[in-house]
């Protein structure tokens, strides 16, 4: 049937009980509105090409495309058909071209596209350190082997082989590599870049089984030795080690500490959510020992350096690098071996428990949210800022007792002197 379509008429339409309802416009011959039982309304034109083939391209949906726009679009498309065009064939050709182009996209191109998407993801944002880890791992482990190949041409054997090769030399890294590759391939499958996921869904246990978590906790005497070894380094490496021990922060968070994050007057360091691994900003106290380390590397003209000026890099204004070589120097100077930078966080967490910091406060002090249940995170909206400052402050006070210079035996501090007894 043909109707002079109006907004009031379209709003009054009810979906058919089954199948679909088609209404032809009386003003533009060939314009059709199709309404399905699910309530979806689409505009299309029905006509024939020059060679007599019937064609019915869709031009939009209602109400997103109103009546006036649908009529204008339909008239323009009908003119194209009269001139020899075939909208349906052209759309099919465009889809085929897109598929062909997608098939030619290399692994390296798709990895970069995936990383950009994760950086811009507002629903589930990632910390820049996590994105950097993804980029580094895939660039170093995958791109040299598969980077130039079209992603669609790669095989499960190739992807599994990369993980298996890494497992032979670095089992813990292999487990992380498997998770990173699997995340990338899941995204690729969801977006149609590949027809199926190219790693076995349950293959981690076979290809890259999880390695037992580390349990190394440094003793107080080992912390003293590492601290003293750092004292013999330059100002920036020394600050890097001292801040790692004092603040409970992660290696990358300390490495990129910037002027705008530090308040020397109040003695606070705020790690922004963009730099925190879990995307949660945290403010940590800076004890006298921490402030001494920071003032030694503070730019001479702090007001000109800007808030993004990073303090610990060899190049002015850049972040600290070369922690592997620094670790070797610290090991040699301290005599303490068999530990990693991350073990300092475990040591701090264990140490806080030992000196009586409540468990939930100690977990928050190292910026762990996994210690709280989902229900707690939903209903307990307290930020625990004071508790975090107190917890880390107690740890720093404990460390000060270990590493602060001790007064000479011949000198009695005034505060400890007792008044003479009266005769």
From TrEMBL:
<dbReference type="GO" id="GO:0006310">
    <property type="term" value="P:DNA recombination"/>
</dbReference>
<feature type="domain" description="Tyr recombinase">
    <location>
        <begin position="213"/>
        <end position="394"/>
    </location>
</feature>
<dbReference type="InterPro" id="IPR025166">
    <property type="entry name" value="Integrase_DNA_bind_dom"/>
</dbReference>
<dbReference type="InterPro" id="IPR011010">
    <property type="entry name" value="DNA_brk_join_enz"/>
</dbReference>
<dbReference type="GO" id="GO:0003677">
    <property type="term" value="F:DNA binding"/>
</dbReference>
<protein>
    <submittedName>
        <fullName>Integrase arm-type DNA-binding domain-containing protein</fullName>
    </submittedName>
</protein>
<dbReference type="Pfam" id="PF13356">
    <property type="entry name" value="Arm-DNA-bind_3"/>
</dbReference>
<keyword id="KW-0229">DNA integration</keyword>
<dbReference type="Pfam" id="PF22022">
    <property type="entry name" value="Phage_int_M"/>
</dbReference>
<feature type="domain" description="Core-binding (CB)">
    <location>
        <begin position="105"/>
        <end position="189"/>
    </location>
</feature>
<dbReference type="InterPro" id="IPR002104">
    <property type="entry name" value="Integrase_catalytic"/>
</dbReference>
<dbReference type="InterPro" id="IPR010998">
    <property type="entry name" value="Integrase_recombinase_N"/>
</dbReference>
<keyword id="KW-0238">DNA-binding</keyword>
<comment type="similarity">
    <text>Belongs to the 'phage' integrase family.</text>
</comment>
<dbReference type="InterPro" id="IPR050808">
    <property type="entry name" value="Phage_Integrase"/>
</dbReference>
<dbReference type="InterPro" id="IPR013762">
    <property type="entry name" value="Integrase-like_cat_sf"/>
</dbReference>
<dbReference type="InterPro" id="IPR053876">
    <property type="entry name" value="Phage_int_M"/>
</dbReference>
<dbReference type="Pfam" id="PF00589">
    <property type="entry name" value="Phage_integrase"/>
</dbReference>
<keyword id="KW-0233">DNA recombination</keyword>
<dbReference type="GO" id="GO:0015074">
    <property type="term" value="P:DNA integration"/>
</dbReference>
<dbReference type="InterPro" id="IPR044068">
    <property type="entry name" value="CB"/>
</dbReference>
<dbReference type="InterPro" id="IPR038488">
    <property type="entry name" value="Integrase_DNA-bd_sf"/>
</dbReference>
């Amino acid at each position: 049937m043909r109707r002079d379509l109006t907004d009031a008429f379209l709003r009054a339409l009810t979906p058919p009980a089954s199948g679909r309802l088609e209404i032809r416009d009386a003003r533009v011959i060939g314009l059709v509105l199709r309404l399905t039982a699910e309530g979806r309304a689409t505009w299309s034109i029905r006509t024939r090409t020059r060679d007599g083939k019937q064609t019915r391209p869709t031009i939009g949906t209602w109400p997103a495309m109103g009546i006036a726009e649908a009529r204008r679009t339909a008239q323009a498309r009908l003119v194209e058909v009269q001139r020899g065009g075939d909208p349906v064939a052209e759309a099919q050709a465009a889809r085929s071209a897109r598929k062909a182009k997608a098939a030619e996209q290399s692994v390296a191109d798709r990895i970069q596209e995936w990383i950009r998407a994760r950086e811009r993801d507002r629903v589930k944002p990632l910390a820049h350190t996590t994105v950097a880890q993804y980029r580094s791992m895939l660039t170093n482990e995958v791109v040299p082997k598969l980077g130039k190949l079209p992603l669609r041409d790669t095989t499960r054997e190739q992807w599994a082989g990369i993980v298996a090769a890494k497992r032979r030399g670095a089992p813990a890294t292999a487990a992380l590599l498997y998770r990173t590759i699997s995340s990338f391939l899941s995204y690729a499958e969801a977006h149609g870049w590949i027809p199926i996921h190219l790693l076995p869904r349950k293959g981690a246990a076979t290809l890259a089984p999880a390695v037992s978590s580390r349990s190394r906790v440094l003793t107080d005497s080992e912390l003293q030795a590492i601290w003293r070894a750092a004292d013999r380094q330059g100002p920036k490496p020394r600050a890097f080690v001292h801040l790692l021990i004092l603040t409970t922060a992660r290696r990358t968070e300390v490495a990129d500490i910037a002027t705008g994050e530090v308040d020397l007057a109040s003695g606070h360091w705020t790690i922004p959510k963009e730099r925190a691994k879990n995307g949660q900003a945290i403010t940590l106290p800076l004890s006298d020992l921490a402030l001494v380390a920071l003032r030694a590397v503070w730019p001479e003209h702090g007001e000109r350096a800007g808030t993004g000026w990073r303090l610990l890099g060899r190049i002015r204004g850049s972040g600290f690098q070369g922690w592997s070589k620094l670790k070797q120097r610290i090991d040699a100077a301290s005599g303490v071996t068999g530990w990693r930078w991350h073990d300092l966080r475990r040591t701090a967490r264990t140490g806080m428990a030992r000196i009586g910091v409540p468990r939930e406060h100690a977990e928050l002090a190292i910026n762990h949210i996994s210690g709280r249940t989902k229900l707690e995170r939903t209903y307990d909206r307290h930020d625990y800022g004071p508790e975090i400052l107190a917890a880390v402050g107690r740890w720093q006070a404990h460390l000060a007792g270990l590493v602060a210079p001790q007064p000479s035996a011949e000198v009695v501090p005034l505060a400890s002197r007792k008044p003479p007894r009266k005769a």
